[in-house]
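Researcher: Here's a chain I'd like modeled. Treat it as a single chain, no partners, no ligands.
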Amino acid sequence: MNRAEKIRNRLEEALSPVHLEITDDSMAHAGHKGAMESGGGHFYATIVSEKFEGKSSVQRHQLVFRALGDLMQTEIHAFSMKAFTPLEFQQKGNP
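Model: Modeled as a single isolated chain. Structure tokens:
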């Protein structure tokens, strides 16, 4: 299982997202000192979950990082995200 699949599994298990996109941007950072030292990749995710209802942006990020757990120490060097409720995602013009 590759890193993106591990991330997907963790997020699906913890957040039951209705929409989840994960992009591995590691190649764009090839040779980046921090990534080389940690051995981890650079990832971007769009996560849409009902579990974000009533949560601030910080609380949403905390839920995501809690779900990723030890992957943040071992396999992920950088992780950026957009975390939406289903209504917010729809209001942005998404299906």
